[in-house]
Amino acid sequence: MATMRQKEAARRNLEKARQARRDRARGKRVPRRSQGMTTAEENRLADREFAFLEQRKEPLTDGAHVRNAVARFDQVEGVTDAERDRAWKRIQAASRRFDVELSERSWRELFEGGKAKKR
Question: Whole-model pTM?
Answer without folding.
Answer: 0.67
